[in-house]
């Protein structure tokens, strides 16, 4: 402190200087406190911003990884992002050899068993039914005795017709004797020629009467034979429709019994119109096309027969045509109106290249197969033209040759020129293949009880 500087006296209490100094002192004291309060807030906001940025970065990275991650098949064969040291670069596949063999061409359809003859046996004369000689469900032969109508009235009719015939024959005989006498008398010029001519006309009249009587006798005998009702065809008798003691009339509406021929028996089935040219060509060549009938589930063979005829027109509503096949039905496994699945063997392709159905792929090149090259164990795409198929194997008409190796499993992981590790499919158990016959047929809808 300078001693020459005069000292300022202290301000008096209540003066203005003291009043102005107090607020400044308070501002100086509160400023550091506000700064200390704002600093934590700024740090909290900055932390939240950084946390959100981290979360958004993680979400973005996850989206990018899912969008651009390498495909499993690329990783398997060492593509971009998929190669790992020590992993094999060849794709494992199962192969089969193109074989040369025979391929049957079969057509499948739905059919109904139809009897070749279904006859309702009706009486041909009226009268009381005195006897029924068959049992329901009996196998009968043509001409077997089935029932009898009371024959007594018809027997009497025969006797009456025969009596009338005898009477008229006697009259004819007498008229012929008189004619001989008149001819002799005319020669002697003893009677007029008119009398002889009249006698000749009388003889002719009696001859006509005798012929009519003979017809009446035959008709009466025929009616008498109709009293014995016999089987018109061989077959199986159905349920009895009338009981003994009832009066029946000629042409009885209900009949006595229905006989259905079951040996042989036929099956009516339908096929698409596109198959008709091949079938007709075989029939024109005189071929007998075998037909196999299966049960409703196609699990059991019921009978085998041959195709007999093709209908003469196509059903325009369905685009199909009806065919009839005949079966011996020796074991009576086919029953009239039974629903069956039918398989028709049209032809057999001999010595054609065949591959398993699983070998055929479909894509941009059309239908193709992967052929394994034995030299470098690579797979190459080979477009092929398909032929007939039986559900397990397919004929290849163009594209591969017998002896070549094709991929039947693992083709979805291959590309042109890919390395493969082949395993022979013949050494593995055969996998089930879909049937060419498609899904099992639906059951026929049952009729609602009325």
TrEMBL record:
<dbReference type="GO" id="GO:1990281">
    <property type="term" value="C:efflux pump complex"/>
</dbReference>
<keyword id="KW-1133">Transmembrane helix</keyword>
<dbReference type="InterPro" id="IPR058625">
    <property type="entry name" value="MdtA-like_BSH"/>
</dbReference>
<feature type="domain" description="YknX-like C-terminal permuted SH3-like">
    <location>
        <begin position="355"/>
        <end position="421"/>
    </location>
</feature>
<feature type="compositionally biased region" description="Basic residues">
    <location>
        <begin position="441"/>
        <end position="450"/>
    </location>
</feature>
<dbReference type="InterPro" id="IPR058624">
    <property type="entry name" value="MdtA-like_HH"/>
</dbReference>
<dbReference type="InterPro" id="IPR058637">
    <property type="entry name" value="YknX-like_C"/>
</dbReference>
<dbReference type="GO" id="GO:0015562">
    <property type="term" value="F:efflux transmembrane transporter activity"/>
</dbReference>
<feature type="domain" description="Multidrug resistance protein MdtA-like barrel-sandwich hybrid">
    <location>
        <begin position="118"/>
        <end position="260"/>
    </location>
</feature>
<keyword id="KW-0472">Membrane</keyword>
<comment type="similarity">
    <text>Belongs to the membrane fusion protein (MFP) (TC 8.A.1) family.</text>
</comment>
<keyword id="KW-1003">Cell membrane</keyword>
<feature type="region of interest" description="Disordered">
    <location>
        <begin position="417"/>
        <end position="450"/>
    </location>
</feature>
<dbReference type="Pfam" id="PF25944">
    <property type="entry name" value="Beta-barrel_RND"/>
</dbReference>
<dbReference type="Pfam" id="PF25989">
    <property type="entry name" value="YknX_C"/>
</dbReference>
<feature type="compositionally biased region" description="Low complexity">
    <location>
        <begin position="421"/>
        <end position="434"/>
    </location>
</feature>
<dbReference type="InterPro" id="IPR006143">
    <property type="entry name" value="RND_pump_MFP"/>
</dbReference>
<feature type="domain" description="Multidrug resistance protein MdtA-like alpha-helical hairpin">
    <location>
        <begin position="159"/>
        <end position="227"/>
    </location>
</feature>
<keyword id="KW-0997">Cell inner membrane</keyword>
<feature type="region of interest" description="Disordered">
    <location>
        <begin position="1"/>
        <end position="39"/>
    </location>
</feature>
<protein>
    <submittedName>
        <fullName>Uncharacterized protein</fullName>
    </submittedName>
</protein>
<feature type="compositionally biased region" description="Basic and acidic residues">
    <location>
        <begin position="24"/>
        <end position="39"/>
    </location>
</feature>
<feature type="domain" description="Multidrug resistance protein MdtA-like beta-barrel">
    <location>
        <begin position="264"/>
        <end position="348"/>
    </location>
</feature>
<dbReference type="InterPro" id="IPR058626">
    <property type="entry name" value="MdtA-like_b-barrel"/>
</dbReference>
<dbReference type="Pfam" id="PF25876">
    <property type="entry name" value="HH_MFP_RND"/>
</dbReference>
<feature type="transmembrane region" description="Helical">
    <location>
        <begin position="45"/>
        <end position="67"/>
    </location>
</feature>
<dbReference type="Pfam" id="PF25917">
    <property type="entry name" value="BSH_RND"/>
</dbReference>
<keyword id="KW-0812">Transmembrane</keyword>
């Amino acid at each position: 402190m300078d001693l020459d500087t005069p000292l300022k006296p202290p301000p008096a209490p209540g003066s203005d200087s003291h009043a102005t100094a107090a607020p400044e002192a308070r501002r100086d004291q509160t400023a550091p406190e506000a700064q200390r309060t704002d600093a934590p807030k700024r740090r909290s906001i900055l932390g939240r911003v950084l946390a959100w940025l981290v979360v958004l970065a993680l979400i973005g990275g996850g989206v990018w990884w899912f969008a651009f991650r390498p495909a499993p098949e690329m990783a398997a064969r060492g593509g971009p992002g998929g190669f790992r040291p020590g992993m094999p670069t060849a794709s494992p596949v199962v192969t089969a050899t193109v074989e040369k063999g025979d391929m049957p061409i079969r057509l499948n359809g739905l059919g109904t068993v139809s009897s070749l003859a279904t006859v309702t046996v009706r009486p041909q004369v009226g009268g009381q039914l005195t006897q029924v000689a068959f049992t329901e469900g009996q196998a009968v032969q043509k001409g077997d005795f089935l029932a009898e109508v009371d024959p007594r009235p018809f027997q009497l009719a025969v006797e009456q017709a025969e009596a009338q015939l005898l009477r008229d024959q006697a009259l004819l005989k007498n008229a012929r004797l008189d004619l001989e006498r008149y001819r002799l008398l005319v020669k002697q010029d003893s009677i007029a020629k008119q009398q002889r001519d009249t006698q000749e006309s009388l003889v002719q009249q009696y001859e006509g009467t005798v012929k009519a009587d003979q017809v009446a006798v035959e008709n009466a005998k025929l009616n008498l034979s109709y009293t014995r009702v016999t089987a018109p065809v061989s077959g199986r008798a159905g349920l009895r429709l009338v009981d003994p003691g009832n009066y029946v009339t000629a042409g009885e509406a209900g009949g006595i019994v229905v006989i259905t021929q079951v040996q042989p028996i036929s099956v009516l089935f339908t096929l698409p119109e596109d198959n008709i040219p091949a079938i007709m060509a075989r029939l024109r060549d005189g071929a007998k096309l075998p037909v196999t009938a299966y049960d409703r589930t196609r699990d059991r063979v019921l009978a085998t027969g041959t195709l007999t005829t093709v209908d003469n027109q196509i059903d325009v509503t369905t685009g199909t045509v009806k065919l009839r096949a005949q079966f011996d039905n020796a074991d009576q496994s086919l029953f009239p109106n039974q629903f069956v699945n039918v398989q028709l063997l049209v032809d057999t392709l001999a010595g054609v290249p065949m591959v398993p159905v699983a070998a055929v792929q479909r894509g941009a090149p059309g239908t193709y197969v992967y052929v394994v090259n034995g030299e470098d164990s690579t797979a190459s795409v080979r477009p092929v033209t398909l032929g007939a198929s039986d559900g397990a194997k397919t004929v290849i008409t163009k594209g591969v040759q017998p002896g070549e190796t094709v991929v039947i499993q693992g083709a979805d992981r291959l590309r042109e020129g890919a390395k493969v590790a082949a395993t022979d499919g013949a050494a593995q158990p055969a996998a089930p293949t879909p049937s060419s016959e498609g899904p099992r047929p639906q059951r026929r809808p049952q009729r609602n009880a009325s």
